[in-house]
Design a protein that fits this description.
The protein is of the alpha/beta class. Helix content is 39%, strand content 13%. It is globular. It binds 3-methylbut-3-enyl trihydrogen diphosphate (2 copies) and magnesium ion.
């Protein structure tokens, strides 16, 4: 956005995490589900649920900063969501544009670093420009990393990474026997980002819907019955409390 400059130093506007607020979650991944049902329950068109969901995004970002979470990944549009009616897809695109235009300055002031994951090819040119701008403007920030999964599908991500590796192998830049887990992880959209500790899905659905398949190998899952537009700090704290009682073993004892 013209006029928005990268942060140079943390200022009073930054929502620094409260001392001791750390909840033990370095990376929280979120499947924001239930917008359509929220609207239908109120006799509203589905798009009204998506609009209401935007306020829940703002709430969760603030709450994540306050709890000392380092990385927040939000599933906002899947590669399968193109199958929805054109009017709904159009509204979801419009909302992404609106979110970046209206919230980028605030995110930047809060020292948030924005990163977008997902397939860029085929997205409208003006959206691509906004995504690049959101990343560039906030690139030097050191607070929460907000990872927006847009036009994201884990299988498509794995296909892209596999193609990259195949090209490198075919051209002799990498030996097949040198390909291990780290080499695959480094070619995913999430390269450099630690795996999620906790994945929350709102709305009561209990499935992963093609989200972060590689990265969630040892992630804890919490399924919240709350519909996304109603997801508030109390719902987040309930999920974090459930997480705090989990015993993560990573295959060990
Ligand atoms: C989640 O809400 C938002 C997106 C998938 C973009 P839904 O639109 O899936 O809402 P439900 O699941 O139909 O209630
Ligand atoms: C997953 O929700 C995708 C996003 C939240 C962006 P969906 O509502 O699309 O998933 P399914 O169709 O219920 O599995
Ligand atoms: Mg849904």
């Amino acid at each position: 956005m013209p006029g928005i400059v990268p942060n140079r130093a943390a200022g009073p506007e930054h929502d620094a995490p409260a001392p001791g607020a750390s909840c033990g979650v370095v990376h929280l991944a979120f499947i924001m589900d239930g917008n359509g049902r929220w609207a239908t329950q109120r006799g509203l068109p589905r798009v009204a649920g998506h609009r209401a969901g935007l306020e829940a995004v703002r709430r969760l970002v603030r709450a994540a900063i306050a709890r000392g979470i380092g990385y927040l990944t939000l599933y906002s549009f899947s590669t399968e969501n193109w199958a929805r009616p054109a009017e709904e897809v159009g509204e979801l695109m419009r909302l992404l544009r609106f979110f970046i235009r209206s919230d980028l300055a605030t995110l930047n002031a809060r020292n948030v670093r924005v990163r977008i994951i997902g397939e860029r090819e085929g997205l409208p040119e003006d959206i691509l420009a906004l995504l690049r701008e959101a990343e560039a403007v906030t690139a030097a920030n050191t607070g929460l990393m907000l990872i927006v999964a847009f036009n994201y599908g884990a299988r498509a991500e794995l296909v892209r990474a596999t193609r990259r590796l195949a090209e490198e192998a075919a051209s002799g830049r990498i030996a097949p026997e040198a390909i291990g887990e780290a080499e695959i992880a480094a070619r995913l959209d999430t390269a450099g980002i630690p795996d999620p500790d906790l994945l929350i899905r709102s709305s009561g659905e209990q499935r992963i819907s093609n989200f972060l398949l590689w990265q969630c190998a040892y992630t804890e899952f919490v399924f919240s019955p709350v519909l996304w537009p109603d997801f508030d700090e109390a719902a987040l704290d309930a999920a974090l409390a459930e997480f705090s009682h989990r015993h993560r073993r990573f295959g060990g004892l």
